[in-house]
Every structure is written in C-alpha cells, then in structure tokens.
Amino acid sequence: MNARDVILARVRAATEGAPPVEIPRDYRGPAPASQTASPELAELVADRIRHYKADVHVVDEAGVAAVVAEALAGRGAGRFVVPEGFPREWLPPEGFEWVGDEPELTASDLDAVDGIVTTCAVAVAETGTIVLDAGPGQGRRALTLVPDFHLCVVRPEQVVAGVPDAVARLDPARPLTWISGPSATSDIELNRVEGVHGPRTLVVVLVR
C-alpha cells in the first residue's frame, strides 16, 4: 500500500457513517432581460476593458470602418488577418492587405502578419471580458493567440451584465477563448511582461 492509499483509507474511516452534506447550488443566474443591452452596461464594459490597459473606441456603426482604419494605421503596417464572416463594410476600403485563413495559416504565417481583426460572441460588462467561440468573423483560436495585435468589434446586443449571462448564451461544446485585456503575466518579483501567451495590444471597438 502506497502513501496515497493510506491517506484515502484514513479519510474513508474518518467519514464512515457521517450524514451526507448538502452543497448549496443556488448560484446567481442570468440577469432579467430588462437589464441587458442598456447604456449603463455599455459604459461599464468600456470602463472595465480600459482598466486592463486596452484601447477602447465607442462609435456608431457608420463610423466603425473609420475607427478601424485609424487603429490599424497606428500599427505602421498593413497586413491583417480577417476571418471568414467579418462584415466587409467595417473594413477600410483601401490602404491595407486582408489575409484569409484558407488554406489554414501556419504559426509562422501568423507571426509574420501585423495583427488580426475579429468580431466576438459575447462581452461581459462586469469583468471587461470578451469571449470568442470561433463563430463568424472570429476564426479559430490560434488566429487570436499568435499575432501581437488584436482588434475586436463588439455589437451592443453582445454586451451582457455578468459571467452567468455569458455562460447562458455560450455553447460549452464550442472552443471558447476568454480575453480580459492584452496578454500579460508577472513573475515572482511582480515584473509585468506583456505578449507572452497572446496579443500584446488589444483594441476594442464598441458599436453603440
């Protein structure tokens, strides 16, 4: 008998005959429909995303292409991945090269582009988190993990109050990527390093 078996045997002996313990499962559920897609949520999600040191732009839908053009031009380059299903009217008509993912781009290909432009599945106001599920305009997970720059456009109806609301909308069988600001980590001495396991720069365009 090894140490693990000894420990488990002692636990079983100590708990033998003990009454079952009821574990409460009354977690907070989704917010009422009246609290969704409100101006307050839009302001909150913008504030929380900025807290993560991401750039946030709030614009009308007619101004999305201009804001995207300005944000991409600030990178000083012009080759960006655009997944299938991204609304073409949101892309600047000229000045940039749009790269598709068919055939699938390799890690080296993705490392060579200047960034990626996507939509999202859900944006969580309370946490400032953007969730991608590989749906239209989002592409597969690798597309948003390898490039150093990510611009994401969020529609107003995609903003939800909290994580329970997001979970209620999402399909757990899909590949979900939860993004809370640019990629960053800290070592034991709390030295912050950005861009280790995802984009160093995140730009979010919130459509009002």
Automatic annotation (TrEMBL):
Domain (LUD): residue spans on this chain: 107-207
Q: Which domain of life is it from?
A: Bacteria
What is the protein's given name? LUD domain-containing protein
- What is the species of this protein? Planotetraspora thailandica
Give the taxonomic lineage as stored in the record.
Answer: Bacteria, Bacillati, Actinomycetota, Actinomycetes, Streptosporangiales
